[in-house]
Protein backbone atom coordinates (compact mmCIF):
# COMPACT_ATOMS: atom_id res chain seq x y z
CA UNK A 1 0.00 0.00 0.00
CA UNK A 2 2.83 2.39 0.84
CA UNK A 3 4.51 1.66 -2.50
CA UNK A 4 1.25 2.23 -4.36
CA UNK A 5 0.67 5.55 -2.57
CA UNK A 6 4.12 6.84 -3.49
CA UNK A 7 3.67 5.65 -7.08
CA UNK A 8 0.36 7.51 -7.41
CA UNK A 9 1.90 10.65 -5.97
CA UNK A 10 4.82 10.44 -8.42
CA UNK A 11 2.41 9.93 -11.33
CA UNK A 12 0.48 13.03 -10.26
CA UNK A 13 3.72 14.97 -9.90
CA UNK A 14 4.82 14.05 -13.41
CA UNK A 15 1.87 15.83 -15.04
CA UNK A 16 1.28 18.69 -12.58
CA UNK A 17 1.46 21.95 -14.60
CA UNK A 18 1.99 24.19 -11.55
CA UNK A 19 5.52 24.71 -10.21
CA UNK A 20 4.25 25.58 -6.72
CA UNK A 21 2.25 22.41 -6.19
CA UNK A 22 4.99 20.35 -7.91
CA UNK A 23 7.51 21.59 -5.36
CA UNK A 24 5.08 21.00 -2.53
CA UNK A 25 4.36 17.42 -3.62
CA UNK A 26 8.01 16.63 -4.36
CA UNK A 27 8.93 17.54 -0.77
CA UNK A 28 6.17 15.31 0.61
CA UNK A 29 7.36 12.41 -1.52
CA UNK A 30 10.98 12.96 -0.56
CA UNK A 31 10.06 13.09 3.12
CA UNK A 32 7.82 10.01 2.69
CA UNK A 33 5.12 11.89 4.60
CA UNK A 34 2.57 9.10 4.36
CA UNK A 35 0.00 10.81 6.57
CA UNK A 36 -0.17 13.89 4.36
CA UNK A 37 0.07 11.91 1.13
CA UNK A 38 -2.75 9.65 2.25
CA UNK A 39 -4.93 12.69 2.99
CA UNK A 40 -4.27 14.07 -0.49
CA UNK A 41 -4.58 10.79 -2.42
CA UNK A 42 -7.37 9.01 -0.55
CA UNK A 43 -9.88 9.86 -3.28
CA UNK A 44 -10.88 12.84 -5.38
CA UNK A 45 -12.71 16.06 -4.63
CA UNK A 46 -16.35 15.36 -5.36
CA UNK A 47 -18.12 17.49 -7.93
CA UNK A 48 -21.32 18.34 -6.08
CA UNK A 49 -23.02 21.48 -4.79
CA UNK A 50 -22.66 23.66 -7.90
CA UNK A 51 -19.14 22.38 -8.49
CA UNK A 52 -16.00 21.92 -6.39
CA UNK A 53 -14.67 23.41 -3.18
CA UNK A 54 -11.68 22.48 -1.08
CA UNK A 55 -8.30 23.33 0.37
CA UNK A 56 -5.54 24.48 -1.98
CA UNK A 57 -2.64 22.10 -2.46
CA UNK A 58 -1.28 19.23 -4.53
CA UNK A 59 -3.18 16.01 -5.12
CA UNK A 60 -6.67 14.91 -6.19
CA UNK A 61 -8.21 15.76 -2.80
CA UNK A 62 -7.10 19.40 -3.03
CA UNK A 63 -7.93 22.37 -5.25
CA UNK A 64 -5.14 22.86 -7.80
CA UNK A 65 -4.60 23.40 -11.50
CA UNK A 66 -4.65 19.69 -12.31
CA UNK A 67 -8.04 19.23 -10.62
CA UNK A 68 -9.42 22.37 -12.27
CA UNK A 69 -8.22 21.35 -15.74
CA UNK A 70 -9.96 17.99 -15.35
CA UNK A 71 -13.13 19.69 -14.10
CA UNK A 72 -13.08 22.08 -17.05
CA UNK A 73 -12.49 19.21 -19.48
CA UNK A 74 -15.44 17.31 -18.02
CA UNK A 75 -17.67 20.37 -18.25
CA UNK A 76 -16.56 20.97 -21.84
CA UNK A 77 -17.29 17.35 -22.76
CA UNK A 78 -20.76 17.67 -21.22
CA UNK A 79 -21.48 20.89 -23.13
CA UNK A 80 -20.30 19.53 -26.47
CA UNK A 81 -22.37 16.38 -25.94
CA UNK A 82 -25.36 18.71 -25.46
CA UNK A 83 -24.68 20.17 -28.91
CA UNK A 84 -23.05 23.42 -27.76
CA UNK A 85 -19.85 23.23 -29.79
CA UNK A 86 -18.85 26.75 -30.82
CA UNK A 87 -21.00 28.37 -28.12
CA UNK A 88 -19.70 30.66 -25.38
CA UNK A 89 -18.75 29.85 -21.79
CA UNK A 90 -18.26 32.89 -19.51
CA UNK A 91 -15.65 32.62 -16.77
CA UNK A 92 -15.34 34.83 -13.70
CA UNK A 93 -13.11 34.73 -10.66
CA UNK A 94 -12.54 36.34 -7.28
CA UNK A 95 -9.28 37.51 -5.66
CA UNK A 96 -8.38 34.31 -3.79
CA UNK A 97 -5.07 32.53 -4.20
CA UNK A 98 -4.93 30.80 -7.62
CA UNK A 99 -8.32 32.10 -8.78
CA UNK A 100 -6.92 33.89 -11.84
CA UNK A 101 -4.85 30.81 -12.77
CA UNK A 102 -7.87 28.52 -12.48
CA UNK A 103 -9.94 30.90 -14.61
CA UNK A 104 -7.32 31.05 -17.38
CA UNK A 105 -6.94 27.26 -17.34
CA UNK A 106 -10.69 26.93 -17.74
CA UNK A 107 -10.70 29.35 -20.67
CA UNK A 108 -7.90 27.39 -22.36
CA UNK A 109 -9.68 24.06 -21.94
CA UNK A 110 -12.93 25.44 -23.35
CA UNK A 111 -11.18 26.78 -26.44
CA UNK A 112 -9.28 23.52 -26.85
CA UNK A 113 -12.58 21.62 -26.78
CA UNK A 114 -14.13 23.71 -29.57
CA UNK A 115 -16.10 26.14 -27.41
CA UNK A 116 -15.76 29.90 -27.20
CA UNK A 117 -14.53 31.31 -23.88
CA UNK A 118 -15.08 34.81 -22.50
CA UNK A 119 -13.09 35.77 -19.40
CA UNK A 120 -14.33 38.58 -17.15
CA UNK A 121 -11.82 41.46 -17.14
CA UNK A 122 -10.64 41.22 -13.52
CA UNK A 123 -11.79 39.83 -10.14
CA UNK A 124 -15.48 40.62 -9.80
CA UNK A 125 -18.50 39.66 -7.66
CA UNK A 126 -20.15 36.34 -8.45
CA UNK A 127 -23.45 38.11 -9.33
CA UNK A 128 -21.70 39.82 -12.26
CA UNK A 129 -20.81 36.39 -13.66
CA UNK A 130 -24.38 35.13 -13.16
CA UNK A 131 -25.66 38.24 -14.95
CA UNK A 132 -23.13 37.95 -17.79
CA UNK A 133 -24.26 34.42 -18.72
CA UNK A 134 -27.72 35.58 -19.78
CA UNK A 135 -26.56 39.00 -20.94
CA UNK A 136 -24.12 37.43 -23.41
CA UNK A 137 -26.30 34.46 -24.34
CA UNK A 138 -23.72 31.97 -23.07
CA UNK A 139 -24.43 28.25 -22.67
CA UNK A 140 -22.64 28.03 -19.32
CA UNK A 141 -20.63 29.97 -16.79
CA UNK A 142 -17.90 29.21 -14.29
CA UNK A 143 -17.05 31.28 -11.23
CA UNK A 144 -13.79 30.50 -9.44
CA UNK A 145 -14.53 31.28 -5.79
CA UNK A 146 -14.76 29.71 -2.36
CA UNK A 147 -17.19 32.42 -1.26
CA UNK A 148 -16.81 32.85 2.52
CA UNK A 149 -14.61 29.80 3.20
CA UNK A 150 -11.24 30.14 4.99
CA UNK A 151 -8.24 31.62 3.11
CA UNK A 152 -6.73 28.20 2.38
CA UNK A 153 -9.74 27.19 0.24
CA UNK A 154 -10.86 27.81 -3.30
CA UNK A 155 -13.74 26.54 -5.39
CA UNK A 156 -15.34 26.12 -8.79
CA UNK A 157 -18.99 27.04 -9.24
CA UNK A 158 -20.82 26.03 -12.44
CA UNK A 159 -23.88 27.61 -14.06
CA UNK A 160 -25.79 26.60 -17.15
CA UNK A 161 -27.23 28.87 -19.82
CA UNK A 162 -30.33 29.90 -17.87
CA UNK A 163 -28.01 31.66 -15.43
CA UNK A 164 -28.76 29.26 -12.58
CA UNK A 165 -26.38 26.95 -10.77
CA UNK A 166 -26.41 23.32 -11.86
CA UNK A 167 -28.78 20.78 -10.29
CA UNK A 168 -29.34 17.06 -10.84
CA UNK A 169 -29.02 15.34 -13.22
CA UNK A 170 -26.55 17.78 -14.84
CA UNK A 171 -24.18 17.68 -11.85
CA UNK A 172 -23.90 13.88 -11.94
CA UNK A 173 -23.49 13.87 -15.73
CA UNK A 174 -20.68 16.44 -15.51
CA UNK A 175 -19.06 14.46 -12.68
CA UNK A 176 -19.10 11.35 -14.90
CA UNK A 177 -17.40 13.31 -17.69
CA UNK A 178 -14.75 14.55 -15.26
CA UNK A 179 -14.08 11.01 -14.06
CA UNK A 180 -13.57 9.94 -17.68
CA UNK A 181 -10.80 12.50 -18.32
CA UNK A 182 -7.50 10.70 -18.84
CA UNK A 183 -3.99 12.08 -18.71
CA UNK A 184 -3.68 15.87 -18.69
CA UNK A 185 -1.48 15.63 -21.77
CA UNK A 186 -4.62 14.62 -23.66
CA UNK A 187 -6.50 17.80 -22.68
CA UNK A 188 -5.95 20.47 -25.33
CA UNK A 189 -5.01 23.80 -23.73
CA UNK A 190 -3.96 26.41 -26.29
CA UNK A 191 -2.07 29.48 -25.11
CA UNK A 192 -4.64 31.88 -26.55
CA UNK A 193 -7.94 32.05 -28.37
CA UNK A 194 -10.29 33.20 -25.62
CA UNK A 195 -11.75 36.68 -25.26
CA UNK A 196 -11.01 38.89 -22.30
CA UNK A 197 -14.12 40.98 -21.83
CA UNK A 198 -13.98 44.71 -21.16
CA UNK A 199 -15.67 46.62 -18.38
CA UNK A 200 -18.70 47.10 -20.60
CA UNK A 201 -20.12 43.88 -19.11
CA UNK A 202 -19.75 45.43 -15.63
CA UNK A 203 -21.41 48.60 -16.90
CA UNK A 204 -24.30 46.50 -18.22
CA UNK A 205 -24.68 44.85 -14.81
CA UNK A 206 -24.68 48.25 -13.11
CA UNK A 207 -27.33 49.53 -15.52
CA UNK A 208 -29.45 46.52 -14.62
CA UNK A 209 -29.27 47.43 -10.92
CA UNK A 210 -31.54 50.39 -11.76
CA UNK A 211 -34.41 47.88 -12.02
CA UNK A 212 -34.17 47.14 -8.30
CA UNK A 213 -35.15 50.60 -7.06
CA UNK A 214 -38.32 52.64 -7.44
CA UNK A 215 -37.79 55.79 -9.53
CA UNK A 216 -37.82 58.85 -7.31
CA UNK A 217 -37.62 56.90 -4.04
CA UNK A 218 -35.67 58.39 -1.11
CA UNK A 219 -31.93 57.72 -1.17
CA UNK A 220 -30.75 59.38 2.04
CA UNK A 221 -29.55 56.46 4.18
CA UNK A 222 -25.94 56.67 5.33
CA UNK A 223 -24.10 53.36 5.24
CA UNK A 224 -20.89 51.89 6.62
CA UNK A 225 -19.77 49.13 4.28
CA UNK A 226 -17.24 46.33 4.38
CA UNK A 227 -16.33 44.03 1.48
CA UNK A 228 -14.48 41.84 4.01
CA UNK A 229 -11.25 41.79 1.95
CA UNK A 230 -13.24 40.60 -1.05
CA UNK A 231 -14.15 41.91 -4.49
CA UNK A 232 -17.39 43.77 -3.75
CA UNK A 233 -16.22 47.31 -3.01
CA UNK A 234 -15.76 48.76 -6.51
CA UNK A 235 -19.03 47.34 -7.82
CA UNK A 236 -21.11 48.22 -4.77
CA UNK A 237 -19.84 51.77 -4.42
CA UNK A 238 -20.41 52.32 -8.16
CA UNK A 239 -23.98 51.02 -7.80
CA UNK A 240 -24.63 53.30 -4.82
CA UNK A 241 -23.23 56.31 -6.67
CA UNK A 242 -25.31 55.50 -9.75
CA UNK A 243 -28.45 55.28 -7.58
CA UNK A 244 -27.76 58.59 -5.83
CA UNK A 245 -27.11 57.31 -2.32
CA UNK A 246 -24.49 58.99 -0.13
CA UNK A 247 -21.11 57.37 -0.67
CA UNK A 248 -20.75 54.51 1.81
CA UNK A 249 -18.02 54.80 4.41
CA UNK A 250 -15.83 51.81 3.63
CA UNK A 251 -14.12 50.01 6.52
CA UNK A 252 -10.50 50.93 5.70
CA UNK A 253 -8.84 47.81 7.12
CA UNK A 254 -11.01 45.55 4.96
CA UNK A 255 -11.41 47.72 1.85
CA UNK A 256 -9.01 46.03 -0.58
CA UNK A 257 -9.02 42.44 -1.86
CA UNK A 258 -6.64 40.29 0.14
CA UNK A 259 -6.66 36.49 -0.24
CA UNK A 260 -5.23 36.06 3.25
CA UNK A 261 -8.19 37.85 4.92
CA UNK A 262 -5.87 39.16 7.65
CA UNK A 263 -8.42 40.82 9.94
CA UNK A 264 -10.91 37.93 10.31
CA UNK A 265 -10.71 34.31 11.41
CA UNK A 266 -13.35 33.41 8.81
CA UNK A 267 -14.36 35.90 6.08
CA UNK A 268 -18.05 35.40 6.74
CA UNK A 269 -20.21 38.16 8.27
CA UNK A 270 -22.07 35.51 10.28
CA UNK A 271 -18.93 34.36 12.12
CA UNK A 272 -18.12 35.80 15.57
CA UNK A 273 -15.80 38.81 15.35
CA UNK A 274 -16.06 39.23 11.58
CA UNK A 275 -18.04 42.48 11.92
CA UNK A 276 -16.00 44.02 14.76
CA UNK A 277 -14.10 46.47 12.53
CA UNK A 278 -17.32 47.49 10.77
CA UNK A 279 -18.94 48.23 14.11
CA UNK A 280 -15.88 50.20 15.23
CA UNK A 281 -16.17 52.31 12.08
CA UNK A 282 -19.90 52.74 12.69
CA UNK A 283 -19.25 54.08 16.18
CA UNK A 284 -17.07 56.78 14.64
CA UNK A 285 -19.42 57.91 11.86
CA UNK A 286 -22.90 57.02 13.23
CA UNK A 287 -24.53 55.71 10.02
CA UNK A 288 -28.12 54.54 9.63
CA UNK A 289 -27.02 50.97 8.98
CA UNK A 290 -24.02 48.76 8.34
CA UNK A 291 -23.81 46.57 5.24
CA UNK A 292 -21.31 43.78 4.60
CA UNK A 293 -20.68 41.54 1.64
CA UNK A 294 -18.90 38.24 1.84
CA UNK A 295 -15.70 37.98 -0.26
CA UNK A 296 -17.43 37.20 -3.58
CA UNK A 297 -20.28 39.63 -2.79
CA UNK A 298 -23.16 37.28 -3.41
CA UNK A 299 -24.28 37.55 0.22
CA UNK A 300 -25.40 40.68 2.08
CA UNK A 301 -25.31 41.21 5.84
CA UNK A 302 -27.08 44.08 7.59
CA UNK A 303 -26.59 45.54 11.07
CA UNK A 304 -28.66 48.20 12.80
CA UNK A 305 -28.12 50.52 15.78
CA UNK A 306 -28.97 48.90 19.10
CA UNK A 307 -28.41 51.68 21.65
CA UNK A 308 -29.93 49.68 24.50
CA UNK A 309 -27.27 46.96 24.23
CA UNK A 310 -23.64 46.92 25.33
CA UNK A 311 -22.45 46.36 21.76
CA UNK A 312 -24.69 49.21 20.44
CA UNK A 313 -24.94 47.52 17.01
CA UNK A 314 -26.88 44.38 16.18
CA UNK A 315 -26.48 42.03 13.24
CA UNK A 316 -29.83 41.20 11.73
CA UNK A 317 -30.44 37.55 11.04
CA UNK A 318 -30.85 36.53 7.44
CA UNK A 319 -34.50 35.76 8.15
CA UNK A 320 -35.04 39.29 9.47
CA UNK A 321 -33.53 40.90 6.37
CA UNK A 322 -35.52 38.45 4.25
CA UNK A 323 -38.75 39.59 5.89
CA UNK A 324 -37.84 43.28 5.61
CA UNK A 325 -37.14 43.00 1.88
CA UNK A 326 -40.31 40.99 1.33
CA UNK A 327 -42.44 43.55 3.16
CA UNK A 328 -40.77 46.34 1.16
CA UNK A 329 -41.47 44.59 -2.15
CA UNK A 330 -45.10 43.90 -1.20
CA UNK A 331 -45.60 47.58 -0.39
CA UNK A 332 -44.12 48.42 -3.79
CA UNK A 333 -46.72 46.19 -5.47
CA UNK A 334 -44.35 43.41 -6.52
CA UNK A 335 -46.04 40.56 -8.39
CA UNK A 336 -44.86 37.01 -8.69
CA UNK A 337 -43.80 34.11 -6.51
CA UNK A 338 -41.97 34.61 -3.22
CA UNK A 339 -39.74 31.67 -2.35
CA UNK A 340 -37.45 30.53 0.42
CA UNK A 341 -35.91 27.30 1.63
CA UNK A 342 -37.03 24.66 4.08
CA UNK A 343 -34.48 25.90 6.66
CA UNK A 344 -35.55 29.55 6.50
CA UNK A 345 -38.30 31.18 8.55
CA UNK A 346 -41.92 30.44 7.73
CA UNK A 347 -42.65 34.17 8.12
CA UNK A 348 -42.31 34.72 4.37
CA UNK A 349 -45.33 32.47 3.77
CA UNK A 350 -47.48 34.74 5.96
CA UNK A 351 -46.24 37.91 4.27
CA UNK A 352 -47.00 36.43 0.85
CA UNK A 353 -50.45 35.23 1.92
CA UNK A 354 -51.36 38.70 3.23
CA UNK A 355 -50.11 40.57 0.14
CA UNK A 356 -52.81 42.53 -1.72
CA UNK A 357 -51.45 41.29 -5.06
CA UNK A 358 -51.28 37.69 -6.26
CA UNK A 359 -48.15 36.44 -4.47
CA UNK A 360 -47.73 32.66 -4.52
CA UNK A 361 -45.32 31.12 -2.04
CA UNK A 362 -42.91 28.22 -2.55
CA UNK A 363 -40.35 26.33 -0.46
CA UNK A 364 -37.33 24.56 -1.91
CA UNK A 365 -34.29 22.68 -0.72
CA UNK A 366 -31.41 24.81 0.53
CA UNK A 367 -29.42 26.76 -2.03
CA UNK A 368 -30.13 29.16 -4.84
CA UNK A 369 -29.62 26.41 -7.38
CA UNK A 370 -33.13 25.37 -6.29
CA UNK A 371 -34.63 28.76 -5.45
CA UNK A 372 -33.68 30.31 -8.79
CA UNK A 373 -35.70 27.68 -10.65
CA UNK A 374 -38.98 28.55 -8.93
CA UNK A 375 -41.59 29.22 -11.67
CA UNK A 376 -42.66 32.86 -11.83
CA UNK A 377 -40.07 33.90 -9.27
CA UNK A 378 -40.15 37.52 -8.11
CA UNK A 379 -38.20 37.31 -4.85
CA UNK A 380 -36.21 34.66 -3.06
CA UNK A 381 -34.04 34.52 0.01
CA UNK A 382 -32.30 32.02 2.24
CA UNK A 383 -31.38 32.50 5.87
CA UNK A 384 -27.63 32.34 5.09
CA UNK A 385 -27.70 36.01 3.99
CA UNK A 386 -28.61 35.29 0.35
CA UNK A 387 -31.21 37.42 -1.47
CA UNK A 388 -32.44 37.47 -5.06
CA UNK A 389 -34.33 40.72 -5.62
CA UNK A 390 -34.05 40.89 -9.43
CA UNK A 391 -34.41 37.37 -10.87
CA UNK A 392 -34.74 38.69 -14.41
CA UNK A 393 -31.26 40.17 -14.10
CA UNK A 394 -29.46 37.69 -11.82
CA UNK A 395 -30.90 34.24 -11.14
CA UNK A 396 -28.81 33.77 -8.06
CA UNK A 397 -28.22 35.50 -4.76
CA UNK A 398 -26.82 38.98 -5.27
CA UNK A 399 -25.28 40.95 -2.42
CA UNK A 400 -25.03 44.16 -4.45
CA UNK A 401 -28.68 44.58 -5.45
CA UNK A 402 -29.82 43.37 -2.02
CA UNK A 403 -27.70 46.13 -0.47
CA UNK A 404 -29.33 48.70 -2.74
CA UNK A 405 -32.83 47.56 -1.84
CA UNK A 406 -32.23 47.50 1.92
CA UNK A 407 -30.68 50.98 1.66
CA UNK A 408 -33.78 52.20 -0.19
CA UNK A 409 -36.02 50.79 2.54
CA UNK A 410 -33.89 52.38 5.25
CA UNK A 411 -34.06 55.70 3.38
CA UNK A 412 -37.86 55.59 3.16
CA UNK A 413 -38.17 54.76 6.84
CA UNK A 414 -35.69 57.52 7.72
CA UNK A 415 -37.89 60.10 5.99
CA UNK A 416 -40.82 58.81 8.08
CA UNK A 417 -38.79 59.08 11.28
CA UNK A 418 -38.63 55.30 11.64
CA UNK A 419 -35.97 52.58 11.41
CA UNK A 420 -35.56 49.03 10.20
CA UNK A 421 -36.00 47.91 13.81
CA UNK A 422 -39.36 49.71 13.99
CA UNK A 423 -40.53 47.87 10.88
CA UNK A 424 -39.40 44.53 12.30
CA UNK A 425 -41.52 45.24 15.37
CA UNK A 426 -44.53 46.02 13.18
CA UNK A 427 -44.03 42.77 11.27
CA UNK A 428 -43.89 40.80 14.53
CA UNK A 429 -47.14 42.33 15.78
CA UNK A 430 -48.86 41.71 12.45
CA UNK A 431 -47.76 38.13 11.81
CA UNK A 432 -46.47 36.87 15.16
CA UNK A 433 -42.87 36.85 16.34
CA UNK A 434 -40.96 34.35 14.20
CA UNK A 435 -37.73 33.88 16.16
CA UNK A 436 -34.98 31.83 14.55
CA UNK A 437 -31.64 30.51 15.71
CA UNK A 438 -29.07 27.95 14.67
CA UNK A 439 -27.10 25.21 16.36
CA UNK A 440 -24.02 24.85 14.17
CA UNK A 441 -21.25 22.38 14.99
CA UNK A 442 -17.95 22.58 13.06
CA UNK A 443 -16.02 19.30 13.07
CA UNK A 444 -12.60 18.04 12.09
CA UNK A 445 -13.85 14.48 11.67
CA UNK A 446 -16.80 14.18 9.25
CA UNK A 447 -17.83 10.89 10.86
CA UNK A 448 -19.15 12.95 13.78
CA UNK A 449 -21.78 14.38 11.47
CA UNK A 450 -22.84 11.04 10.02
CA UNK A 451 -23.01 9.55 13.52
CA UNK A 452 -25.28 12.38 14.72
CA UNK A 453 -27.60 11.97 11.73
CA UNK A 454 -27.72 8.21 12.25
CA UNK A 455 -28.50 8.62 15.95
CA UNK A 456 -31.38 11.03 15.22
CA UNK A 457 -32.79 8.66 12.61
CA UNK A 458 -32.61 5.64 14.90
CA UNK A 459 -33.82 7.44 18.04
CA UNK A 460 -35.82 10.51 16.96
CA UNK A 461 -36.78 12.91 19.76
CA UNK A 462 -40.40 12.83 20.89
CA UNK A 463 -40.25 16.30 22.47
CA UNK A 464 -37.93 19.31 22.46
CA UNK A 465 -38.11 22.07 25.09
CA UNK A 466 -41.21 20.33 26.40
CA UNK A 467 -43.01 20.78 23.07
CA UNK A 468 -44.25 17.49 21.57
CA UNK A 469 -42.86 16.50 18.16
CA UNK A 470 -46.03 16.16 16.09
CA UNK A 471 -44.26 15.16 12.86
CA UNK A 472 -40.77 13.86 12.06
CA UNK A 473 -39.73 13.70 8.41
CA UNK A 474 -36.66 12.01 6.99
CA UNK A 475 -36.01 14.22 3.98
CA UNK A 476 -33.65 11.64 2.45
CA UNK A 477 -36.82 9.92 1.28
CA UNK A 478 -38.10 13.05 -0.47
CA UNK A 479 -41.58 14.53 -0.15
CA UNK A 480 -44.42 15.34 -2.50
CA UNK A 481 -42.81 18.71 -3.25
CA UNK A 482 -39.10 18.16 -2.51
CA UNK A 483 -36.47 15.85 -4.01
CA UNK A 484 -34.48 13.69 -1.56
CA UNK A 485 -31.83 15.39 0.55
CA UNK A 486 -29.85 14.39 3.64
CA UNK A 487 -31.92 16.12 6.30
CA UNK A 488 -34.46 15.72 9.08
CA UNK A 489 -37.41 18.00 9.84
CA UNK A 490 -39.43 18.15 13.04
CA UNK A 491 -42.63 20.12 13.62
CA UNK A 492 -43.44 20.84 17.26
CA UNK A 493 -46.78 21.58 18.86
CA UNK A 494 -47.27 24.79 20.78
CA UNK A 495 -48.22 25.46 24.38
CA UNK A 496 -49.72 28.34 26.35
CA UNK A 497 -47.00 30.81 25.23
CA UNK A 498 -45.75 29.33 21.94
CA UNK A 499 -47.84 28.90 18.80
CA UNK A 500 -45.53 26.36 17.13
CA UNK A 501 -41.90 25.47 16.49
CA UNK A 502 -39.83 23.76 13.80
CA UNK A 503 -36.38 22.17 13.58
CA UNK A 504 -34.41 21.12 10.49
CA UNK A 505 -31.11 19.23 10.80
CA UNK A 506 -28.72 18.77 7.88
CA UNK A 507 -25.02 18.50 7.07
CA UNK A 508 -23.64 21.62 5.38
CA UNK A 509 -23.06 21.27 1.66
CA UNK A 510 -19.97 23.49 1.64
CA UNK A 511 -18.33 23.28 5.08
CA UNK A 512 -17.54 20.56 7.66
CA UNK A 513 -20.53 21.49 9.80
CA UNK A 514 -23.71 19.97 11.12
CA UNK A 515 -26.39 22.64 10.97
CA UNK A 516 -29.62 22.69 12.95
CA UNK A 517 -32.12 25.40 12.04
CA UNK A 518 -34.63 26.38 14.72
CA UNK A 519 -37.80 28.48 14.58
CA UNK A 520 -40.27 29.39 17.30
CA UNK A 521 -43.47 31.32 16.56
CA UNK A 522 -44.88 33.35 19.46
CA UNK A 523 -48.17 35.27 19.11
CA UNK A 524 -48.01 39.01 19.85
CA UNK A 525 -51.19 40.87 20.79
CA UNK A 526 -49.68 44.36 20.71
CA UNK A 527 -46.35 46.17 20.56
CA UNK A 528 -46.27 46.33 24.35
CA UNK A 529 -46.14 42.53 24.47
CA UNK A 530 -43.07 42.22 22.23
CA UNK A 531 -40.48 42.09 25.01
CA UNK A 532 -42.29 39.25 26.74
CA UNK A 533 -42.67 37.43 23.41
CA UNK A 534 -38.93 37.77 22.77
CA UNK A 535 -38.14 36.41 26.22
CA UNK A 536 -40.43 33.44 25.63
CA UNK A 537 -38.89 32.77 22.24
CA UNK A 538 -35.31 33.03 23.53
CA UNK A 539 -36.00 30.70 26.44
CA UNK A 540 -37.67 28.17 24.15
CA UNK A 541 -34.90 28.30 21.53
CA UNK A 542 -32.25 27.79 24.21
CA UNK A 543 -34.09 24.76 25.55
CA UNK A 544 -34.55 23.30 22.05
CA UNK A 545 -30.82 23.67 21.41
CA UNK A 546 -29.95 21.83 24.60
CA UNK A 547 -32.40 19.00 24.02
CA UNK A 548 -31.45 18.64 20.35
CA UNK A 549 -27.75 18.59 21.16
CA UNK A 550 -28.35 15.79 23.65
CA UNK A 551 -30.51 13.85 21.20
CA UNK A 552 -27.87 14.12 18.46
CA UNK A 553 -24.95 13.41 20.77
CA UNK A 554 -23.07 16.56 19.76
From the structure above, extract its key features.
TATA-Binding Protein; single chain; 554 residues; alpha/beta; six-stranded antiparallel beta sheet; Alpha-D-Glucose-1,6-Bisphosphate, Chain A, domain 3
* Count of individual helical segments: 17
- The CATH H-level superfamily of the largest domain is Alpha-D-Glucose-1,6-Bisphosphate, subunit A, domain 3
Quickly give the structural class: alpha/beta
| Estimated radius of gyration | 24 Å
Q: Strand content of the residues, in percent? A: 15-25%
Q: Quick one: how many beta strands? A: 21
Give the terminus-to-terminus CA distance. 35 Å
Placed side by side, the strands forming the largest sheet appear as: 1-5-4-2-3-6
Domain unit count: 3
Kindly report the CATH topology of the largest domain: Alpha-D-Glucose-1,6-Bisphosphate, Chain A, domain 3
CATH architecture name of the largest domain:
3-Layer(aba) Sandwich
Write up this protein.
- With 554 residues, this protein is an alpha/beta fold.
- It has three domains: 41-195, Alpha-D-Glucose-1,6-Bisphosphate, Chain A, domain 3 (3-Layer(aba) Sandwich); 205-428, Alpha-D-Glucose-1,6-Bisphosphate, Chain A, domain 3 (3-Layer(aba) Sandwich); 432-552, Alpha-D-phosphohexomutase, C-terminal domain (TATA-Binding Protein, 2-Layer Sandwich), CATH 3.30.310.50.
- It is 37% helix and 21% strand.
- The protein contains 17 helices and 21 strands.
- It has a six-stranded mixed β-sheet, sandwiched between helices. A six-stranded antiparallel β-sheet has the order 16-21-20-19-18-17. A five-stranded mixed β-sheet has the order 8-7-9-10-11.
- Helix 1 packs antiparallel against helix 2, helix 9 runs parallel beside helix 14 (399-415) and helix 11 (318-331) packs parallel to helix 12.
- The longest helix is centred in the C-terminal third of the chain and has 23 residues, at 530-552.
- It is globular.
- It starts with a helix and ends with a helix.
- The model has no long low-confidence stretch (mean pLDDT 95).
